[in-house]
Amino acid sequence: MAKKVQGVKCKVYIVESLDELDRKVLGGQRSATLNRSAETLDATSKDSAGGWKENEAGFKEWSVDTDGLLIQSDEAYDLLEERFNNSEKVGVIIELPNGKTYEGMSVITDFPIDLPYDDLVTYTAAFTGDGELAKVATAPTGE
Fold it and tell me: Which Pfam family would be a valid example here (predicted)?
């Protein structure tokens, strides 16, 4: 039976650029979603088989949505705040426990903080990809 991937072992890292080796894990992270989609191009013509529409894949795009607990001292969160305030791009890296990694530069498009009266302070962050989302094989984290 194939081994299942546990979401708790998947990490989101933030970097200033993808060439940087100093990955900053996003502290307090609870969950993340890697979204990938492609435009649909209509390729239907008068001689399409049986009157069915035909389509081709167009430009692709990706985004990441994540949330977590706000940690008082977190380098990755501080970098996000700085980049968001300065309208600068940031590198996002998602690492699975088997070493498979997805990485790309992004724009921070949403960055709220939730300050409830009766619970812990949390944040959410939404990243929209700027260019390619690369899939890279690295050594497993061993977790």
Answer: Phage_tail_2
Whether pTM > 0.70 for this model: the answer is yes
Which secondary structure element, helix H or strand E, spans residue 82, and what is its range?
helix 75-85
Helix (H, G, I), strand (E, B) or coil at 9: helix
DSSP bridge pairs for 125: 66
* Helix (H), strand (E) counts: the chain: 1, 9
| DSSP string computed for 91-124 | EEEEE-TTSEEEEEEEEEEE--EE--SSS--EEE
Half-sphere exposure of 101 (CA within 13 A, CB side): 19
For 43-76, what is each residue's pLDDT tens digit? 999 888 888 999 999 999 999 999 999 998 899 9
Q: Which is it for strands 122-129 and 100-110: parallel, antiparallel or unpaired?
A: antiparallel
Burial of 64 (0-12, 13-18, 19+ CB in 10 A): buried
Q: Are 129 and 105 in contact (CB under 8 A)?
A: yes
